[in-house]
Amino acid sequence: MPFAVHLLAFSLFAMGSAEFLLAGVLISAFAVGVVIGGPPLAVLTLRRPRRTTLVVSQTLLAIGVAIGLPADDFTALIVTRFLCGLTYAGFWAVAAVAGQRPGL
């Protein structure tokens, strides 16, 4: 095989790896927020009105996304993804119960 084909293959591998690595790091930051935030938020929101908790967590998620979108600093992006994971965990904790019992 010509050297150019090997060079093209290596270039595609490097470019693809760089893209997937960044996406994986951001997804991992979100997942860590979900894992850390899930149990405490489930307990903290246990006696709160479900509808209010769902709306507040959705609002906080939207704010986190709005802050993270224009971030030009990787640290800020990681922090906002983590915080979005926390709010997602709070939403999930309440939505799982609300789905089992009708009448939010």
Automatic annotation (TrEMBL):
Domain Major facilitator superfamily (MFS) profile: residue ranges: 1-104
Keywords for this protein: Cell membrane, Membrane, Transmembrane, Transmembrane helix
User: Which InterPro entries does UniProt cross-reference here?
Assistant: MFS, MFS_dom, MFS_Efflux_Transporters, MFS_trans_sf
Protein topology in the membrane: Multi-pass membrane protein
The UniProt transmembrane annotation reads 28-46, 53-71, 77-98
Q: Which domain of life is it from?
A: Bacteria
Q: Which Gene3D superfamilies match?
A: MFS general substrate transporter like domains
Q: Does the keyword Ubl conjugation apply?
A: no
Q: Where in the cell is it found?
A: Cell membrane
Name of this chain's protein: Major facilitator superfamily (MFS) profile domain-containing protein
